[in-house]
Amino acid sequence: MITIRIKNLRLRTYIGFNDEEQQKRQDVVINVRFSYKADDAAESDDVRYAVNYRTITKEIINRVEGGRFLLLERLAAEVLELVMAHPEIRFAEVEVDKPHALRFSDSVSATVSAERNP
Fold it and tell me: What is the pLDDT of residue 45?
């Protein structure tokens, strides 16, 4: 198994349920970690056997920037669904941070994970 990490993907979306939050995009920071069996990719150095993390990142960008979310939990769950839609992936974890969501705090985050049985 190999683990791929997409670190600090900074996007803007509508997130929150207050009127002000629904009127303007806010920053979110997304971290994704996923694992898959990469023996063939590592042995052959052939991209055909690898999970394309660029494709996954583009899917995340389109969903997040094109969406509207009331809750961090929903946003994190939707990103996880996108990642797990790739059948090669056995495990994934997604963390979504909402910077400056609380006074005196750097951010608030939601983390969700899923594992596929072999």
Answer: 87
Domain boundaries in the chain? 2-115
Low-confidence ranges of the chain (pLDDT < 70): 118
Q: Using the 8-state DSSP alphabet, how is residue 100 labeled?
A: T
What are the CA-CA distances from residue 54 to residues 6, 27, 118 (Å)?
9, 21, 24
Rounded CA separation 70/110 (Å): 13
What pLDDT shows up at residue 118?
Answer: 67
- What is the per-residue burial (b if ≥16 Cβ within 10 Å, else e) of 60-88? beebbeeeebeebeebbbbbbebbbebee
**Residue 106 backbone zone (phi > 0: left; psi -120 to 50: alpha; other: beta):** alpha
Tell whether domain 2-115 is in CATH 3.30.200.20. Answer: no
